[in-house]
Amino acid sequence: MSTEEQILEELTSKEYEHGWSVDFEADETPLGINEDIIRFISAKKEEPEWLLEWRLKAFRLWQEMKEPKWVNVSYPKVEFQAIRYYSAPKQDKKPTSLNEVDPELLKTFERLGISLQEQKRLTGVAVDAVIDSVSVATTFKDKLSELGIIFCSFSEAVQEHPELVKKYIGTVVPSNDNYYAALNSAVFSDGSFCYIPKGIRCPMELSTYFRINAANTGQFERTLIIADEDSYVSYLEGCTAPMRDENQLHAAVVEIYAAKNAEVKYSTVQNWYPGDKDGKGGIYNFVTKRGICAGDHSKISWTQVETGSAITWKYPSCILKGNNSVGEFYSVAVTNNYQQADTGTKMVHIGKNTRSRIVSKGISAGKSQNSYRGQVEVIKRAENARNFSQCDSLLMGSLCGAHTFPYIDIKNKTAQVEHEATTSKIGEDQIFYCQQRGIDEETAVALIVNGFAKEVMNKLPMEFAVEAQKLLALTLEGSVG
Amino acid sequence: MIEEYNMLRSFEHLINDNPSSKEAWKMLTEIGLPHKKSEAYKFTPIAPILEKNINWSLEPKNTFDEKQLYSVKGSHFVFVNGILNENLSRTQPDVSFIIEEVREGRHDPFSLLNTSLASNELVITSGTASPIFIYHFNSTGISSPRIRIKIKSGESIQLVEKLLETNKNTFTNSFIHFEVAENAFACHTKVQNYGNSNYSHETVVADVENNGHFYNNTFSFESALTRNNLIINLNGQNCEGHMYGLFLLDKKSHIDNNTTVDHLQPNSFSNELYKGILDEKSTGVFNGKIYVRQDAQKTNAFQSNNNILLSKDATLHTKPQLEIWADDVKCSHGCTSGQLDEYAIFYLRTRGIDRNTAEAMLLHAFAKETLEQVRLETVKDEVLGLIDQKLL
Predict the structure, then answer these.
(1) Which end of chain B has less neighbouring CB within 10 Å, N or C?
(2) Rounded to whole angstroms, how far apart are CA atoms A43 and A64?
(3) Rg of chain B in Å (alpha carbons)
(4) Do residues A29 and A37 touch, judged by C-beta distance below 8 A?
(5) Residue B303 in contact with residue B332, Cβ under 8 Å?
(6) Any chain A CB within 8 A of the CB of B176?
(7) Which residues of B264-297 are buried (b: 16+ CB within 10 A; e: fewer)?
């Protein structure tokens, strides 16, 4: 088994590619949280009174809540008073076009591989980039606005479309939903906002890039996507952070609202800094993501590739309220070294003839722990609900763990629900088969892992699929079970 | 918590005087009975239900009925209100048993309660050629039977347990422990068909050593509330654990099957098949846990849970759970819930079979798979009879 150890060694010595930080002048609050900090953030954002009230209400709720303990990950207590809740790269005035954006900042994005300029020109993907806490640039805005599509930073939406924000904020994820959602509702600093009007099919992929740059900073962004009747949008989200020894908190909220016949596709490639090979540092990724299929025949589809973060704790969910609505969840979660992941989904069938599909692939290596936790709930009046769930785990190395906790709660006899799960390692016969055909062991493993994750990778938009495959290969390069 | 403590207080005068019981009682009063938010009892809020429905000071009735015993040659142990009645029991010479003072058991609330209240423990040692039958005739508020079965190396036993609640509003809290030595074999079969006002919490623990095999078959029919805790520890290598269960419920019956199989050493095998048919206002809960510890390489563990809901008021909660810390293993679980296949019914109807009969045939076939491991014909016939009685 020496080759295995050697390969694992190689794998664990792999450094995090995005682990640099850039020094731009930042505008920030002191450490800690209290009502003044919230007032400061709100004032900084020039927010209307109702939003400040909403934040303060959430903060008061949060103070009364306790951190949940049921999760299958362990981490030292988060010191909420040692986090900086607002940090913005300093800009003298708001940029109106890319030319006015701080060149240092643009360089950051180039290093990230998302040169805004280039993306704008070549791929035609509209990008909204969020550094630390604020949105710094949104491309393709004019072209989108011709169609009536609103795609901007959250703070801009608060200024320019307060009626939409007020109507939908907190309707899918109420501020008292859970501990971290409440915290986010109190201190969220920016994020993305997207509105697709009736009958419009968004002609390009919308994309947000998140990056935590400053030290001791938590990132609390909030994304709100509203798809009006008969509309379609595909939305991408990517994240990176510099290498730091301390753990940093990322507590975001994503809300999706799909009206009648609308379809929203939300894809995430999450590559937050996972900590070093001894488990030091890394991001705590505690995110609440939920979508509601409010109208009939609507559809929400979550696709996620999770390779980063010291701890991932999130369950992108669908509430299938409209009749004939569809929810989908496709996930690949990879953990290595000391990473821990507890992720999955929740499908709540409320309307008639609702369908949901869950495909979850967990890959654990090193000393990591990977859990799938999911719930399929069929309420009493949800006639003819249909669910299929599949969660497979792949174990690499003898020190990691894979766990499955699926909950299935059915109150209607017409429901047809299937769940299956398997756990295994890469078979020696599979590797032998490849080697027989002249493929070396390392390539064989990559091939098998890629095949294992293919079903999910196929669901990613083109722009992300390439990146995701590269990430997967990078995280697991050469690890033979 | 206050309410549950009240319930505990009504047991206080029943606590045994021996050190294990006192210790268990002390621990129980510290941890309390499971409350609404306890994950393990999430869908079966047992403490408040017991608090509301059980008459703790119920007067015992003489309810022994010879006809309830299986007419099979073997050792028949009769428990009355949780205590072995040797006069009513009929044993074969090949079985040896003693009554011992109760020892420390598991540390979950209901096991602690059993340790506190069980006056003695029946210890059956030696494997036997003829089957063993254990009957519980319970008519008091709470009965706490306590049994330990030691199967020596190379021996095998068949054990059938039957609980007969013979008074209304009773609660049985049983604890049975199997010690399966190396190369030994044990098969435990339970038939649960109680009245609609009888409650039970039944714990079965098996410790299996190298090359040992343990089978459990649990058939549940009517009951107000039954919770089955089945824990199989595969402590040795090359062990096997098999779990088969059927719950066929109607009225307001509530069954909670909680099974755990723990693989601690390499090369063991476990297989689980639970099937549920839920009619009227019944509730079925299944929680199957498989643990594969770091040392338990080359483990094969399989689990399957299939359910059919027949009525719009039936509820099902199922939670298969795999926790794996070893890499060279093959584990899988599958679970389904649905209703009868309309095409299958149509097929039968085109052949002149009426709808009700067609449905009964399909359900019968669905249920029968769980009976494969029952080796005593009398018991098998009894269960098949119960299935027919419920379905037709």
Answers:
(1) N
(2) 25
(3) 21
(4) yes
(5) yes
(6) no
(7) bbbbbbbbbbbbbbbbebbbbbbbbbbbbbeebb
The tens digit of pLDDT for each residue in B244-263 reads 999 999 888 999 999 999 99
CA–CA separation, B235 and B141 (whole Å): 36
Interface test with A, best of B270, B278, B337 (most A CBs within 10 A): B337
pLDDT at position A386 is 93
Closest Cα partner for A453 from A478, A476, A433, A480?
A476
Q: What is the mean pLDDT of chain B?
A: 89
- Do residues A342 and A374 make contact, with C-beta atoms less than 8 angstroms apart? no
Dist. CA B389–CA B283, nearest whole Å: 20
| H or E stretch covering A76 | none
B137 versus A464: the higher-pLDDT residue is B137
Give the contacts of B256 (CB within 8 A, at least 6 positions apart).
B41, B43, B44, B225, B226, B227, B228, B285, B287
Which two structure tokens, joined as six digits, stand for B75? Answer: 């050792």
Signed CA dihedral, A75, A405, B105, B263: sign only: negative
Query: Quick check: A362 contacting B, CB < 8 Å?
Result: no
- Number of residues that this document lists for chain A: 481
Of B388, B64, B376, B114, the closest CA to residue B227 belongs to B114
Q: Do B335 and A380 touch (CB under 8 A)?
A: no
Residue with tokens 């052949």: B351
CB atoms within 10 A of CB B114: 29
What is the token pair recorded at B15?
């606590």
Q: Where are the domains of chain B?
A: 2-340
Tell me how far apart the terminal alpha carbons of chain B are, to the nearest angstrom: 44
User: Which chain A residues are within 8 Å of B310, Cβ to Cβ?
Assistant: 413
Asked if residue B257 lies in contact with residue B245, where contact means CB atoms within 8 angstroms, the answer is yes
Tokens of B167: 């008074």
Please give the Cα distance from B172 to B286 (Å, whole number).
20
With H, G, I as helix, E, B as strand and everything else as coil, classify residue B353: coil
Amino acid letter, A170:
G
**CA–CA distance, A272 with B99 (Å, rounded to integer):** 62
Query: What gap in Å lies between CA A404 and CA B235, rounded to an integer?
Result: 23
**Nearest CB to B331 within list A396, A398, A422:** A422
Give CA–CA dist B370/B276, Å, rounded.
10
Q: Name the residue facing B336 among A393, A413, A418 (closest C-beta).
A: A418
The rounded distance, in Å, linking the Cα atoms of A125 and A121 is 9
- In which element (H, E) is residue A43 found? helix A35-44
Question: Can you give the length of chain B in residues?
Answer: 392
Best mean pLDDT range from A96-110, A263-277, B209-223:
B209-223
Report the DSSP beta bridge partners of residue A464. none
- In whole angstroms, how far apart are CA B300 and each of A423, B215, B245? 10, 16, 20
Look at residue B348 in the predicted model and tell me its pLDDT: 94
